[in-house]
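User: Let's play a game. I give you a shape written as tokens, and you guess the letters that built it. Ready? Here's round one.
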């Protein structure tokens, strides 16, 4: 099942548009869905967004970054207690 269909708030955010994250980065979308509702999602998203000096990565297009940040924001709102657990 897609992120857009399984996370109502993300579907509302996208409206009629499809998810570029799901379309262009299906493995990442699958991993986000797998970690959804668990504290590990914060570590996973942080790993996606932080570029290590030793790794040669191109980065994400702005629209995909916006989707990742929106998913993080939705997760924080739906599961406020998990964010605190992720840092401890």
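Assistant: Ready! My guess for every position:
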């Amino acid at each position: 099942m897609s992120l857009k269909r399984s996370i109502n708030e993300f579907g509302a955010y996208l409206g009629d548009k499809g998810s570029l994250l799901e379309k262009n980065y299906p493995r990442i979308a699958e991993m986000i869905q797998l970690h959804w509702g668990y504290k590990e999602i914060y570590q996973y998203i942080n790993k996606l967004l932080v570029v290590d000096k030793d790794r040669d990565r191109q980065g994400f297009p702005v629209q995909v970054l916006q989707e990742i940040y929106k998913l993080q924001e939705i997760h924080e709102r739906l599961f406020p207690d998990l964010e605190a657990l992720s840092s401890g």
